[in-house]
Amino acid sequence: MRFLETFFNGAVMAKYLPDLLSAIVTTLWLSAVILVLGLSLGLALACLRSLGRWYLTLPIVAFADIGRALPPLVVILIFYFGLPGLGISLSGPAVLILVLSGVLAAFAEEIFWAGLTAVPKGQWEAGRATGLSFARTLFEIALPQAIRLGIPPLVNRALAITKMTALGSVIGVKEILSVSSSAQSFSGSATPLTMAALAYLAIFLPAVLLSRLLERRYSWAV
């Protein structure tokens, strides 16, 4: 009984449920924007890198390496608290989107690039031999194969990074962890944190199951 009162207090749930639902909406739209921007930028960078121009490859590789090496929380704090010193003020959601999209793009670029390099050289040459331009060979022959090869790691990486929206709690973004932590402080009950855990499960467990299905579906291509 004490366990239920501590973690599943009905009165506390009823009081803070509206705030949590609003936080879930915030988490969902942040995750959607981060996914679209991060994957799109990663794909674009991989395509530019395939041109083989050193002045494009060098900054792309540097971006990918730095983006994968730096802890996202450190970058978020630098952007949110440091940029105002340069006269640039960004909102919490804008910082979260900018940083996490960049991190996802760094990983996605490497995954897409690995897929492109895995396409047999003969297929590139066959496309050019039939009169296709480099761009058409890339987009019609190589890229579809690279995307298929990259689906399992992309899904897993995207899932890991979208869960990092919880880092928004340190810069005042009203996402699930921020709202539930505040509710826990005011109520003195662990119930809001239980609600947060259930909310994360409701959002991300289906994505985890989807990633498992995709891994099985495309495991032959990895």
What does this structure look like?
By secondary structure, this protein is mainly alpha-helical. 80% of the residues lie in helices and 0% in strands. It has helices at residues 2-7, 10-49, 54-69, 72-82, 92-118, 121-129, 134-162, 176-187, 191-218. 32% of the residues are buried. The mean pLDDT is 89.
Q: What oligomeric state do the depicted chains represent? A: single chain
Give the proportion of residues in helices.
over 70%
Rg is 21 Å
Strand content: under 5%
Backbone shape: elongated
Major β-sheet annotation: none
Q: Specify the structural class.
A: mainly alpha
Work out the number of β strands. Answer: 0
Helices, by number, come to: 9
User: Which H/E pattern describes the elements?
Assistant: HHHHHHHHH
Distance from first to last alpha carbon: 50 Å
List keywords for this structure.
222 residues, mainly alpha, 9 helices, 80% helix
Summarize the structure.
80% of the residues lie in helices and 0% in strands. With 222 residues, it is mainly α.
Sequence-ordered SSE layout with sheet pairings:
Layout: H1 2-7, H2 10-49, H3 54-69, H4 72-82, H5 92-118, H6 121-129, H7 134-162, H8 176-187, H9 191-218
Helix pairs in contact: 2-5, 2-7, 2-8, 2-9, 3-5, 4-5, 5-7, 6-7, 7-9, 8-9
